[in-house]
User: Fold this.
Amino acid sequence: MAKIVFIDENLCIGCGKCTELCPREILYIDSAAKKCKVSDEAECDRLAGCQHICPTGAIRIR
Ligand code: SF4
Ligand code: SF4
Assistant:
C-alpha cells in the first residue's frame, strides 16, 4: 500500500496539535524523540486536518 502520511521530523516541534485533532487516533508523539509518528496509516481518512493544523507545515497527506 502506498504511503499516505508524510511527517518531516526536521520541521515537527512535537506540539501535539495534530495528535489531538486526528479523528482516527493514528498520530502520536514519540516521547523520547518528541516528534509526531504514525501508527496505522491505513486508517487515515485523508481529509488532511492534521496537515492544515500543523503550525510548522511538517505533515503532508497524499
Ligand atoms: S488526515 Fe486525518 S485521519 Fe489522517 S492522519 Fe491526518 S488527521 Fe488523522
Ligand atoms: S502539529 Fe506538526 S509540529 Fe505539532 S506535533 Fe503534529 S507534526 Fe509536529
